[in-house]
Amino acid sequence: MGSPLRIAVLGGGRMGQSHARQILANPDTELVAIIDPATDQPARQFGVAHFPDHPSLLAQARPDAVIVATPNDLHVPTALDCLAAGVPALVEKPVGVNPQEVDELAAAVQTTGVPVLVGHHRRHHPVIGAAKQYIASGELGQLVAINALWLTRKPADYFDTWRSAAGAGVLLINLVHDIDVLRYMCGEITSVVALTSSAARGLVVEDTASLTLQFAGGALGSIIGSDAAVAPWGWDKNSGDDPYFAQEPDQPCFMIAGTRGSIQVPQLATWSYQGQADWTAPLTRDQVPLPAGGALDRQLAHFVRVARGEVPPLVSVRDAGRTIAVVDACHRAARTGQRVDVTETADRLTAPPLQAAR
Ligand SMILES: NC(=O)c1ccc[n+]([C@@H]2O[C@H](COP(=O)([O-])OP(=O)(O)OC[C@H]3O[C@@H](n4cnc5c(N)ncnc54)[C@H](O)[C@@H]3O)[C@@H](O)[C@H]2O)c1
């Protein structure tokens, strides 16, 4: 085993500190600095160097890798500077706030060859892996109907910061996770219809969204999400993934149904008929074995290998860009009242840059 990967965390807020704790707990990583223009308190708390901005970090400390946990609208510009300096990055979700800037970042990854992992950490969670595998096994038959819930009530002072301005909102902060993980488990989303509302909080960004999704395999889906609703349903409260949140472990956040059966996540409970499907007959409840373990530690272990060039990222910029294409389509659908096709924007992000004419 070589020396630990020397990582600097950009952004010393809630998520940056969560990453810092993960780095300290992993013997393959070393926390070298925390960058925050507003405060040196987190750096002092973790006993590491403080820099007020990432250009001074990159010039003076030259870490092996960085984790970008700044406000959403700074992810792409910050990551571009790190790539230009040859420093691999784990970029928090959302990878960018619109498909255009994600396109720019994807092109920079391609040009520089510097690896980037996007922080859709739920994909590293063993329960999501088990659900994805079960769906892929065909036990559910053909996917028909997919439902996701993410409902919580955040405190008012949560919105005293960047979280009340453009680039935030429940879609880009929270439902981006649900959209990403549904894509991961159930396949690509091809078109959307959406309603959003700011009525509960009165901010410029939406606090509530109701999304209707069409999947490439033909299934229809819905996501209902709100940061203003008191309710027990949502990955953070149901999965035990993050001890920051009080838990409601019996409640489901994803309900995925096919022609032969259904599965409830994160409990991994399944329902099917013993014989031929008959809506008057009792369903049999069964259980996919529940794997243990969390997501953030696995994500960091994976990032060490990505930064060293040993494996490709589980969530690349182009892949996370397809999730942003869905978010962008939801915003456009809500604005126009029209059904919006996702494929064109998403395919542009996935396609390699066009060759220059000879
Ligand atoms: N993966 C997850 O589950 C998850 C959870 C929470 C937040 N996030 C993401 O992490 C990011 C940070 O969210 P948060 O909740 O920690 O926000 P936060 O407001 O608590 O922290 C952000 C910090 O970044 C600092 N900052 C501002 N400009 C900066 C710059 N140019 N360079 C370095 N630091 C800068 C701010 O001073 C602040 O301390 C967001 O993109 C958010 O979407 C991800």
A few lines on this structure:
GO terms for molecular function: nucleotide binding. It contains eleven helices and 15 strands. It has 358 residues and is α/β, with parallel strands linked by helices.
Explain what the structure shows.
This protein has helices at residues 14-25, 41-46, 54-60, 75-84, 99-112, 126-136, 169-186, 235-238, 296-307, 317-336, 343-350; strands spanning 5-10, 29-35, 49-51, 65-68, 89-92, 116-119, 143-151, 189-197, 208-215, 220-226, 254-258, 261-265, 269-272, 284-287, 340-341. It is an alpha/beta fold and 358 residues long. The chain has 2 domains: 5-114, Rossmann fold; 123-291, Dihydrodipicolinate Reductase, domain 2 (2-Layer Sandwich). The strands form 2 sheets. It has a 9-stranded mixed sheet. α4 (75-84) links the parallel β4 (65-68) and β5 (89-92). α7 (169-186) packs across α10 (317-336). The longest helix is centred in the last third of the chain and has 20 residues, at 317-336. The protein is globular and about 70 Å long. The model is unreliable at 354-358 (pLDDT under 50). Nicotinamide-adenine-dinucleotide is lined by residues 10-16, 35-38, 53-54, 69-72, 74, 92-93, 119, 121, 161, 173. InterPro entries: Gfo/Idh/MocA-like_OxRdtase_C (IPR004104), Gfo/Idh/MocA-like_OxRdtase_N (IPR000683), Gfo/Idh/MocA_Oxidoreductases (IPR051450), NAD(P)-bd_dom_sf (IPR036291). Residues 5-120 form the Gfo/Idh/MocA-like oxidoreductase N-terminal domain.
